[in-house]
Write a structure and sequence with these properties.
Elements: E1 2-7, H1 25-33, E2 38-40, E3 46-48, E4 76-77, E5 85-88, H2 91-102, E6 106-114, E7 123-130, E8 137-143, E9 151-154, E10 160-162, H3 165-171, H4 176-182, E11 192-196
Parallel strand pairs: 1-6
Antiparallel strand pairs: 2-3, 2-4, 5-11, 6-7, 8-9, 8-11, 9-10
Helix pairs in contact: 3-4
The structure holds zinc ion (ZN).
């Protein structure tokens, strides 16, 4: 089985005003795939309910609330909005790969860097593996008049769908301002690809 790998940023990149701050993309994807739910601890730890200890109580058979893997306090649900997709530049490259995944010939691994990307001593951590049953897919993204104000995509039968900029940004896991700052160096005259992590489509 072929494995195609797609990196996600754990922190905002150096070119972004929020440089170094956590993006919480992983937690936002968890929110959209519903496998586990994002949680946070008073100690500052943020993660997935999957990583927490949770004991079954002898008498009742109920489960205790999840506990932080770092400090064992009870954690609370982390309310973030779901990240449903990522936007990339290499349209044909990703179309081909996602088609292959949906034919059952490959899987998509979403990973993040631990440490500086490609840095000495840095490693990667796989966050999600999507296969043909995950509902992943793609839609082409264009910006009319090369403007962030006029994003558009296409329906299954080729009809033009005007997108709300704020909605597009939110589904990408970002506020509109963060989205604009993220893509400020991108050539908006060139089509891009929306890679969907779930069966959500515009
Ligand atoms: Zn903690």
């Amino acid at each position: 089985m072929k494995r195609y790998r797609l990196p996600l940023s754990r922190v905002f990149p150096a070119t972004h005003p929020k440089k170094g701050e956590r993006t919480f993309f992983r937690e936002k994807i968890l929110q959209s795939t519903h496998e586990y739910y994002p949680v946070q601890c008073k100690c500052g730890w943020v993660g997935s309910s999957e990583e927490c200890d949770c004991y079954q109580i002898g008498q009742s058979g109920d489960w205790s609330d999840p506990q932080c893997p770092k400090c064992s306090q009870y954690v609370e649900e982390f309310n973030c909005f779901p990240k449903r997709h990522t936007i990339r530049e290499n349209v044909e490259y990703w179309k081909k790969r996602i088609d292959e995944i949906n034919k059952g010939n490959a899987v998509l691994e979403i990973y993040e860097w631990i440490g500086k990307p490609y840095g000495k001593g840095s490693t990667t951590k796989t966050l999600f593996t999507f296969d043909k049953n995950s509902g992943i897919g793609y839609q082409e993204l264009q910006f009319s008049m090369n403007s962030f104000d006029f994003p558009r995509t296409f329906s299954k039968n080729g009809g033009v769908l005007a997108l709300m900029p704020g909605n597009l940004a939110k589904n990408d896991g970002l506020s509109l301002q963060d989205f604009k700052d993220w893509f400020k160096k991108s050539d908006l005259s060139k089509p891009k690809i929306i890679i969907h992590f779930t069966d959500f489509r515009y």
